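Please check the following for our workbook:

***
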Amino acid sequence: MSVSINGTTGITLAGQFDSASTFGFKNRILNGSMIVDQRNAAASQTFTAAGALAYSVDRWYGYCTGANVTGQQVAGSGAVQNRYRFTGAASVTAVGFGQRIEQKNSYDLAGSTCTLSADLAISATLTTVTWTAYYATTTADTFGSLASPTVTSIATGTFTVSATVTNFTTNISIPAAATTGIQILFTVGALTAGLTWTIGNVQLEKGSTATSFDYRPYGTELALCQRYYEIIGGGGQSIYVRAYSAASAPLTQYIPFQVAKRIAPSPLTKVGTWAVSNSAQPTVQTGSTQGFNIQGVATALADTYYLANTSSEYVTASSEL
């Protein structure tokens, strides 16, 4: 970077900081560092062959064909704390890993050149990773399903990878029509038994030059992810409702989300068998973008409660695209 001072034009900065993409929050991919994993907490996850797309580390979905594969948040190396890794199996024919970017976070990219970058590696004989960019064809934030996608292809290309993690980059010309949300998808072919595919530090930024990865504070990245998915309760917090209730009386508690959701969550799911006293197991009622009600029903005129206070008792709220 260079700095020049002129009596007419004042201070001019040139070089490294001459582009908006070099400042923070330049990465339109959320959790590109694979550091947030609310669903699995770094445990292995099985993706079912020919099944619906399944979300894994936050904001990322995966799928496979031919046979099941497993995926897991793993340790990185050097300054990179985490990456994501698929482990293949016999008869696997393809694996996909992608992210859908909300319209509100990608609208301004329409009509511009963007740069996609990612750390990639595949063990043994498989050498090609294909990337494809799409936009939602007609309706904002509506990408359809794997079986019935409602997307239009923007561009596609390949990276030739090896067993050594390497950073790859490519330019993507985003069409003016791409104002409805963007999807970035990485795919590989026959990830068979003994093969692994590693991916990390994925970045999509405005401009034709790849810049350094946009590391955001963990709390910030977590909050950005919780706009789409959140776990309420579990080992880190309790959900506890108590009252002296008559038989058949409802025992209801409003639970606010940590972060307001993109849309009212669906599904909103109670997990586990909760501890109860003089109450039926509680149920989750339809929520809003701000929170939800959870309700039990008293079974006797008595001190009544229900409680979730272990790692296996919680509520999940999904507003994924």
Summary: The chain has two domains: 2-226, 229-318. The radius of gyration is 23 Å.
